[in-house]
Amino acid sequence: MSGSTKMKLFLSYLRFSFICVILLNCYASGQEMETMEQFFKSGHTNNWAVLVDTSRFWFNYRHVANVLSIYRSVKRLGIPDSQIILMIADDMACNPRNPRPATVFNNAHQHINVYGDDVEVDYRGYEVTVENFIRVLTGRLPPSTPRSKRLLTDDRSNVLVYMTGHGGDGFLKFQDAEEISNVELADAFQQMWQKRRYHEVFYMIDTCQAESMHQKFYSPNILAVASSRIGEDSLSHHNDNTLGVYIIDRYTYYALEFLEGVSPDSKKTMGQFLQACPRRQCISTVTVRTDLFQRDPDKVLITDFFGSVRKVELSNNYIQLDNIPLTIFPSQTCDGDACEKDKGNEKRIQRGPRMQYADPFPVDSYIKGVSVSDNSRH
């Protein structure tokens, strides 16, 4: 092979390598842009959960197990207790009929005590009412209500609302004493939307004729799933002979089975979750409503509702923060190195705001003063 031929081959090789490098850079840039779009497309910055069991009495043990199972899952996936409103109508863990006090199990093999050691119940017993539930959603609570009982959401909050209990066509019973209708629930979500109290809502209900509870929804950005159609019962899964009652409902059992395979960095989607309990397993028809939801459930991560993964953007670039001086007014003071003279206009400038602790409120003196004034009156 002559020298000129070798040179031509060498130049062809260089040209081919150069083209390959350009194509790889274009592909990497495209992948980076796609990653950035995926990163920001969910649009929410925080997650909240409202978990409600509406049933009392020992024979409704399974409803308490249902709600505690979902509670355990969302906590494991990152939603803290401060952002979970847990409403339980009866205390099965301390019921005299419970042969294992301080425990609630969702499986006859008793693998998992869903009551655990750190359950924080926000509304219990007779506090679980239709009025309190609607007040929690809409934020119309008395000023004396503690923060732990408030749903402090905003227009960037994704909210999971889970309900379980006994229901019928168009209603869900609360403690066999009252009921919430599907119209009242739809209006509560509309109030939330008008008051900018959510970005997206995932509504999940396990009860008989559950489909009827989301039929009246008309507010945007709501994704809903129900354990049964109108005219169908939502059945329990299995019983525990030791307890003498059914301990979990079918739909929640298979939903929990799916969630147990989800990790905080999971890529599983809401579309997959909505198919977690086919009719052959649930023995009822799970219904889904997606017409109000703006995104494709198959492209929505399940952690957008069941987790609380903080979105962090990493950067290798340095950001230079200039020390901008602030003009000090005559009423302000500064000490030592915090001040210097500007030779141009002789104004005193301060490098930054001076920080100091405020004096504590003199509680002891105030109490003594009140006591003295009260004694002088007598």
UniProtKB/TrEMBL annotation:
InterPro entries: GPI_transamidase, Peptidase_C13
Location of the region described as Disordered in the Swiss-Prot/TrEMBL record: 340-360
Keywords: GPI-anchor biosynthesis, Signal
Comp. bias regions, Basic and acidic residues: 340-349
GO molecular function: GPI-anchor transamidase activity
Keyword Signal included in the entry's annotation: yes
Signal peptide span: 1-30
GO cellular component labels: GPI-anchor transamidase complex
GO biological process: attachment of GPI anchor to protein; GPI anchor biosynthetic process; proteolysis
Active site: residue positions: 166, 208 (nucleophile)
Biological or metabolic pathway of the protein: Glycolipid biosynthesis; glycosylphosphatidylinositol-anchor biosynthesis
Family: Belongs to the peptidase C13 family.
Descriptive protein name: GPI-anchor transamidase
Source species of the chain: Ridgeia piscesae (Tubeworm)
